[in-house]
Amino acid sequence: MPTKTAPVMSEEEYKKAIIAQAKKDFDNGKFGGHKNPSYMAMKNSFVSVASPNRKGAITQAFISLPFMQRNKVNYLQVKDKHGNEIASFSPAKGWTAVGTSAEHARESTFDSIYTEA
Does the model's pTM come out above 0.70? Predict the structure, then answer.
């Protein structure tokens, strides 16, 4: 589940790295995908810069639950400071990240750079 991280490189360095990844994948007969670990690591690093602090928000949500109720949760919705849902939990599905508009925009930027390369 993506959570806020500091950028590991500048925007220009990210662009160069994404292009290099796309060329490497093309040379190996690949195109992105969840089964491509180096592609996913690059995409997650790029997108997480725009992600909310889900880890902190989830931790805070559990701290606010009474101790005896923590194993009895049927559904939990975690929201950011603006009231936007950023994650949810249910015993049937486990944790699910709810993407933000900033994350979606960053994913689109990544996909555009990668596909164009």
Answer: yes
List Cβ neighbours of 26 (8 Å cut-off, separation of 6 or more). Answer: none
Q: How many residues are there in the chain?
A: 117
How many Cβ atoms sit within 10 Å of the Cβ of residue 49?
A: 18
Q: Contact at 8 Å (CB) between 78 and 61?
A: yes
Distance CA 66, CA 50 (A): 31
Q: What is the pLDDT of residues 22-31, one digit of tens each?
A: 999 999 998 8
Q: Which residues contact 67 (CB under 8 A, 6 or more apart)?
A: none
Q: What one-character DSSP code corresponds to residue 82?
A: T
